[in-house]
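Fold sample X.
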Amino acid sequence: MVASVPKLTTKWPAASLLAILFVWQLVLAGCSREPESQVLSVSGATMGTTYTVKWVSSEPDSVAHIGPRLEQSLLAVNQAMSTYIEDSELSRFNQAGAGFGTEVSAGLFEVLQLAQSISESTQGAFDVTVGPLVNLWGFGPDGRVTHAPEQAQIDAARQRVGYQRLQLEAQTLRVTKEVDLYVDLSAIAKGYGVDELARVMEHEGIESYLVEIGGELRARGLKPDGNGWRIAIESPVDTGREVQRVITLHETGVATSGDYRNYFQEGGVRFSHTLDPLTGRPIRHQLASVTVLSPTCAEADGLATALTVMGDERGYQYAVDNQIAAFFIIKSEAGFVERMTPQFEQYLSN
């Protein structure tokens, strides 16, 4: 006779069963949860200043391959448009004499074409052929000066200035100078460099980013918290850095032009690096700085310079007539006075 074996039974208390199920839910959720988005960044030196690129991504490793591509993009812009690199594409063009024509790279042609368009629209307030005057006043690669040039020197330099003397052929990308022009892209190339960084980000599939070179910026998309990119507009003071206004950006380029950083003084007179191509002299009006918002940073850069040259009255009216988002800071006896176009107001942060 075989003894019967008692049947073993296991009873799970209800609370234990629920606890087990809850643990498994956490495990499964952990396996399916996507990596959280965060703001990544790279920075470095370029164009005599610094650059910073920030973007939203859930892939921290993206810094390793995006960083070098950004560097390559900036090197290409410098090699095409710098007047400080002797063998750059632009330097070789400037070294050639009157009547010289050549096919240029697509990027350089794009910038020259935009520059000519702004020059025509502003009746010469913006002019990239102002290079001889920039060098004469000591704001170019030839180095600083401590004395203002004589009128005869200014008149001689002006003979080599005039955007109308620079001919562009879109079909062949050919650029020709009728006289011994010296093209200086310092008022637009930095903005174009920002746009090139933005192109890299978009090519990489980045939908939210903030790119900046020396204070010129371009933003797209939202940060992980769902807000736009907040940017501070600097107050045009000589001592320290103060915030004048804060704006929120989503899909735009930003550039600021002012006379409060780059200048020299002689006999109690301050000579700004912003030159009026029509007079050959630094601006002398009360406009301290202009910030422009535009779809591309290159356009914002060029327009900011043009409005600065025009001054607070003519520049403001031009911005209103052309529906430009512009913010003016004007010097007065009582301090700084703000003036903005209706298109700019929508960007103000609360």
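Fold sample Y, listed below.
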Amino acid sequence: MDSLTNLIDGFGTALTFQHLLLAAVGVLLGTFIGVLPGIGPAMAVALLLPVTYGLDPTAAFIMFAGIYYGGMFGGSTTSILLNTPGETASVMTAIEGNQMAKQGRGAQALASAAIGHFIGAMIGTIGLVLLAPLIASLAVDIGAPDYFAIMVLAFIAVTSVLGKSRVRGFASLLIGLTIGLVGLDKLTGQSRLTFGSLELADGIDVVIVAVGLFAVGESLWIASRLRHDQGTPIPVGRPWLSRADLRRTWKPWLRGPLIGFPFGAIPAGGAEIPTFLSYVAEKNLSKHKDEWGKGAIEGVAGPESTASASASGTLVTMLSLGLPTTATAAVMLAAFQQYGIQPGPLLFEREPALVWGLIASLFVGTVLLLVLNLPLAPVWAKLLKVPRPYLYAGILFFASVGAYAVSGQVTDLIILYVIGVLGFAMRRYGLPVLPAIIGVILGPAAELQMRRALQISDGSLTGLVNTVFSVTVYVIVLVILAWPLIRRLTRKPTPSEPSEKEPVG
């Protein structure tokens, strides 16, 4: 009851004219910046920090919240239209969303994403209000073996459902894990795969890898095929979802927060893992399995709702424990400290107006995001009418700007295009790109958690399976790996399939 009373007071703070205006500006800025390949919400918040020096803390964080949600939706826009995620949380959306855009259903994919963001954010923010103390206490109890098990599940799940060959999926994962090894060992300080270069000592930024494999790799692939396939103009399509679309999306919209919010609240890396798991779940539950990989709308609705709910869950640990689990949360934590405020268990007592005003602004920003972006879906979809040479030249330009903005080093541009050529080669030889991204994002964290678990158990492998949670996750992993074999052994031959005893022909 106290939470609801405090939330009502928070709405009194968030619904003032100044704060509504700042929330709207944040949503618009976040969307526009999120659309640029490689420039996600974390960089947007970081770039706009100096702009807010003259604002009071409550106003500044209301604006940041709008940028957070707007940036996530902007990233999904380029994922759908250009197969170029603006941030890693939008990677899954590119798989089905871009195929829908190529079929002239880009506007429907964007509308599905916008509504999914709205529903996911609403349910996630309600969870933030009601369940923050419970989720925070559960997060504290999760140890290194559990983190490592979750990441192994993500590796296996993503390589098992993508592409026509598991071998190619694991090969792509291995490429990503290798890239993730570049830099200094976090525990020993030993250089790995740096080839004596000081610029590589800090490793290769995930943004550069994602933009290189997706944006640059896709641009090079399209350029290599322009002479052979000039392509036909892609129709924009209707801006609204049909009844058939709604029947297929409402369940993924509601299932997404059930996956996204808990994973966002535990310190396991933000929205990447839950969006992968949402994609896997929706593919397994779908009645239209023949459409997956060719533009299944459930593959947009589920991951987008999941990502939005995960963003709300991320704020649970950031506000209640002072523990950021995403890059954006880390920047927002720095912003809190800039104002002399330390997030943690006492934040709700010391700064109730700020915290509950921020939470209320999440509801307001979510509504503004839907109101502003749903009518803009057909406008964004018109990007597909831009001639492809100009469109992909623009993508390369903004990808280069985004990569250079990461650290201001020319080396990053060189790495960007080297990885872009690698992305082109992966497309040429049929290797799925996504497992490589997963390896880069989760590989270093998985290695760190594995080594911590082994140190605690004095090097014994039993240290990786000494909790009920980790054992449960490994059982799920074994089921995923064995499922194709089980299906092959238990499947009954259909009448159209000749038996071994019957001669063919």
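Sample Y note: The two ends are 74 Å apart (CA to CA).
Also: Residues 152 and 256 are 21 Å apart (CA to CA).
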